[in-house]
Model the fold of this input.
Amino acid sequence: MFKYVYGPVPSRRLGESLGISPIPFKTCDYSCVYCQLGRTTNLTVERKEYFPLEDIIDELKENVKLFSFDTVTIVGEGEPTLHSRIGDLIASIKKLTTKKCAVITNGSLLWNEDVQKGLMKADIVLPSLDAWDEESFKRINRPHGSLNFEKVVEGMITFRKKYKGEIWLEVMLVSGLNDSDENLLKIAGWIEKIKPDRVYVNVPVRPPTESWVKIPDMSRIRKAERILKGVFMGKVTQGEFHSGLEDTLDAIMSIIRRHPMSYNEVIGFSKDRGENVEEVLERLRRNPNVEVVRINNGEFFRYKKR
Ligand code: SF4
Done:
């Protein structure tokens, strides 16, 4: 059973993405209202070697032999820059494959010089910016008490000046929270200062932590694209899920720990593996570590820690 490496999963931006999760489940310095993994249970800014780097690399060595993929993406079950050896991890990835290495981060620690140094060798860094001031930051991202908006956003501006790779900034739009023209113009003001290479507009398509979180209507999303000079992620196509794990239920569990799967995604994944789909669905529904969440007229399977 692989513990740290999963997929490849289809990523709307990164193609077939072999994921690495260097952080324990729900260990993060934010507790975003829209998080698809549920509420943060370990809200921390402590940087340490949460999992031994050597163990992560050993798993990666096996996985690069098993699959073809487009990108190795450091992401996962919490905020990856909390891993104190993220720089060594990126350096090891670059030795193992010529494919691109991306880091999906909430961007909260880009002011930290060790984090900046650690990320220098990544090809793409994908930070998030959903707020425009302290109040909106607290309302949407619910950060650790030691973080403040100014520090985080200034960190992104500083990092941009030092980092030679690509920065793809993501803005998660939540209806009524950050999708008005006024909100978007303020976020756009920060984006102008950060100067990312690309801007992606995202919406909470997978089950959010707070049930009141809603997707803005299409006219708002289009307006956001124009104001933020971004591309709506819904336009970027998706592919198929894969896993190096033989047992289909284990494979699905390893994916949904990081990425809830829709009913149709589970069906497609199981069919591709020649499984009895009804049996897989039944085993999932009976698994105490799985919760079934219904949103936007769809059913999703999400990991639940017992
Ligand atoms: S969305 Fe990302 S940054 Fe926000 S709580 Fe979840 S893991 Fe942390």
The chain has two domains: 5-239, 245-306. The chain has a mean pLDDT of 93. The longest strand covers residues 5-11. Residues 5-239 form a domain with the TIM Barrel fold (CATH 3.20.20.70).
